[in-house]
Design a protein that fits this description.
This protein is mainly alpha-helical and 103 residues long. Helices cover 64% and strands 8% of the residues. It has a single domain (5-101), classed as Helicase, Ruva Protein, domain 3, CATH 1.10.8. The chain has 4 helices and 2 strands; from the N terminus they run ααααββ. A two-stranded antiparallel sheet has the order 1-2. Helix 1 (5-31) packs antiparallel against helix 2 (42-54) and helix 2 (42-54) packs antiparallel against helix 3 (63-84). Residues 4-83 form the Antitoxin epsilon/PezA domain.
Length: 103
């Protein structure tokens, strides 16, 4: 399969995005001192899934397949932000007698 500029550019974008997403989840797991062997934890399962997804050889994919992979990483980017920010969503802030959610 020929390597074109467009394909190489798409691979570079995917590599940057995947590293960002993976590192976000890894930092969360490490900062919260989660057991990386505990498969009952959503964050650990997500980390393991992302680790496997990063191992694929993107040069074996066509440009169309790379675009699908890119969309996968965009989805994982959004999903990981939602999952890792869930505890921020549930923090309550009290103001007088009114209780409201802090984003």
């Amino acid at each position: 399969m020929a390597v074109t500029y467009e394909k190489t550019f798409e691979i570079e974008i995917i590599n940057e995005l995947s590293a960002s997403v993976y590192n976000r989840v890894l930092n969360y797991v490490l900062n919260h001192e989660l057991n990386k062997n505990d498969s009952q934890l959503l964050e650990v399962n997500l980390l393991n899934q992302l680790k496997l997804a990063k191992r694929v050889n993107l040069f074996d994919y066509s440009l169309e397949e790379l675009q699908a992979v890119h969309e996968y990483w965009r989805s994982m980017n959004r999903y990981s932000k939602q999952v890792l920010n869930k505890e921020e969503f549930y923090k309550l802030k009290y103001c007088s007698t009114v209780v409201y959610m802090v984003p």
